[in-house]
Amino acid sequence: MADKIRVLLIDDDPDFIEANSIVLEASGFEILTACSGAEGLDMVREKNPDVVVLDVMMEHTDEGFAVARRIRSKLKSDVPIIMLTSVGQVTGYEFNPDDNPDFFPVDIFLEKPVPPSILVNKVHEVLKKGGDQ
Fold first, then answer.
1. Are 104 and 65 in contact (CB under 8 A)?
2. In this structure, what DSSP letter does residue 31 have?
3. Per-residue pLDDT tens for 69-81?
4. Contact 12, 36 (CB under 8 A)
5. Edge-to-edge strands, sheet with 51-55
6. pLDDT tens for residues 34-54?
7. Dihedral of the CA atoms 17, 62, 104, 53 (nearest 10)?
8. Taking Cα atoms as reference points, which of 48, 46, 58, 47 lies closest to residue 10?
């Protein structure tokens, strides 16, 4: 039997972590969780996830961007990163990783709240992209 695909959820909202863990586990993924950027970086080092789902605003308003850059430059440059944010609701700004890949080193941006089926589909999408390269 093949190992399950590991999805690391990094978010400071325990309700988000719990709800999305249930959805992703029901879809057959192994779920790892972290409630801060620092804890998330430790999990990337120790557990080697296949996909990272990362919040932008945690302890600091742009913490997710710093975590994504650190993952890409120092830890695991090829891991797909899905970034979730509610920044667009507050600022009206829409993030596009193609606009500035050095500052936005992620594969997909999703605006919170994300319907569970969309999150599952996007995890499958980034895994497929990684397998095509």
1. yes
2. E
3. 999 888 777 899 9
4. yes
5. 30-34, 6-10, 51-55, 81-85, 108-111
6. 999 999 999 999 999 999 999
7. -10
8. 58
